[in-house]
Amino acid sequence: MSAPSDRPLRIGVTCYPTYGGSGIVATELGMELAARGYEIHFITYANPIRLDSGLPRIYYHEVEVASYPLFQYPPYDLALASRMVEIAEWQQLDLLHVHYVIPHATAAFLARSMLREKRRLPFVTTLHGTDITLIGSDKSYLPVTRFSIEESDGVTAISEYLRQQTYEAVRARKDIRVISNFVNCDLYRVPRQAHEGRPRLLHISNFRPVKRAPDCIRILARARESVDCELWMAGDGPDCGAAERLAFELGMHEHVRFLGKQDHIERLIPQCDVLLLPSTLESFGLAALEAMACGVVPVATRVGGLPELITHGQDGFLEEVGDTDAQAARAIELLTDRDLYNRMRRAARATAEERFCTTRIIPQYEAFYREVLGSA
Ligand code: GMT
């Protein structure tokens, strides 16, 4: 069977649906492709967050994992592979696109192998970050991570940093195409009017230790020595309690709002001025890009793929991990120097529009699918 050139592709998408940036990117990519005429079949254990299933050409197929007294660990990856096979056959899928290596690329490899005699089912794997830098580099998963990458019909990474890491930490012998994360610049917009109330810092994350969420409280405390500002913390996760406790300890609790998980982050961001991203590591930093598209200037750390997104002093600031004084000083600069702030917010929006808008990035995925189908 050759690559279908006369009709939009039918793609099966697997991601972590409820948690983290990789699921968000997978979901938004699926919706963008569906809007361009593709048929998108999400094969996941739950309905992906941010998925608008009312959209045409979007389908959701739940992966059910049967439990059995013998199974101390129910084998999700096997249930996923079986479901991929089933959906590929029923829906005549052209390819699978899996996000995050473990176990999604491994399950896709299994599905492709199971269908070998009947039909072709190539799969594309997108690397997002911790699948390489944490899980993939851990010795218990390294061999299967390397194998699953090398067996993929096509591999993409969300930044040049992550591509290099995959070669260095996982020693995968595979061509890896860098296709950056993206933002819909029509949805994420600069507000026409300034928001009401005090200047506002924002943090968005899943509050895993890698995000260093409590640093945001320290930055707020230091910034408040110079500016009467407040902090909004959006999202939920393991460090949420620690951040809240620290807010009380530092006497900041009246100046911080914990908002929990947000369905419409594009409505929240424009109500803020500065995004704080003090992470130990970010392979890309999607929250920073979404903020930039809304003209909210990021103060982030000089790690991973962030320098590929943020040009220090131009469209955001980059400081060292843990140096909350330096990060606070940048926030103060932005909140007190109107000219600087206006210049940087325009530059941030321009970066989002000119380099990372869906109109630029989605066609790169479309071309990559055709390439993979042409050569698989
Ligand atoms: O840490 C997260 O936010 C979740 C994690 C994931 O793998 O689900 O995010 C990674 O992928 C995001 C989307 O591509 C990137 O924007 C994040 O930088 C990356 N996180 C890390 O590298 C720690």
Beta-strand segment tally: 13
Please give the share of residues in helix: 40-55%
* Unreliably modeled segments: none
Order of strands across the widest beta sheet?
3-2-1-4-5-6-7
| CATH architect. name of the largest domain | 3-Layer(aba) Sandwich
As for the CATH topology of the largest domain, it is Rossmann fold
Per DSSP, what share of the residues sits in E-state strands of 2 or more residues?
15-25%
Short account of what is shown:
The chain is α/β, with parallel strands linked by helices and 376 residues long.
Notes on the structure:
This protein has helices at residues 21-35, 76-91, 104-115, 130-133, 142-151, 160-169, 213-223, 240-249, 265-268, 286-293, 306-309, 324-336, 338-355, 358-375, and strands spanning 10-14, 39-44, 58-62, 95-99, 123-127, 154-157, 177-178, 200-205, 230-235, 256-260, 274-277, 297-301, 317-319. It has 376 residues and is α/β, with parallel strands linked by helices. The chain folds into 2 domains: 10-182 and 357-375, Rossmann fold (3-Layer(aba) Sandwich), CATH 3.40.50.2000; 200-355, 3-Layer(aba) Sandwich (Rossmann fold). Strands 3-2-1-4-5-6-7 form a 7-stranded parallel β-sheet, with helices on both faces. Helix 10 (286-293) crosses helix 13. It is globular, with a radius of gyration of 21 Å. The site of ligand GMT has 18 residues, from helix 1.
Properties at a glance:
376 residues, globular, Rossmann fold, alpha/beta, 14 helices, binds ligand GMT
What layout of secondary structure does this protein have?
Layout: E1 10-14, H1 21-35, E2 39-44, E3 58-62, H2 76-91, E4 95-99, H3 104-115, E5 123-127, H4 130-133, H5 142-151, E6 154-157, H6 160-169, E7 177-178, E8 200-205, H7 213-223, E9 230-235, H8 240-249, E10 256-260, H9 265-268, E11 274-277, H10 286-293, E12 297-301, H11 306-309, E13 317-319, H12 324-336, H13 338-355, H14 358-375
Parallel strand pairs: 1-2, 1-4, 2-3, 4-5, 5-6, 6-7, 8-9, 8-11, 9-10, 11-12, 12-13
Helix pairs in contact: 2-3, 7-8, 7-12, 10-13
The protein binds ligand GMT.
Ligand GMT binds at residues 20-22, 25, 100, 128-130, 158, 181, 206, 210, 281-286.
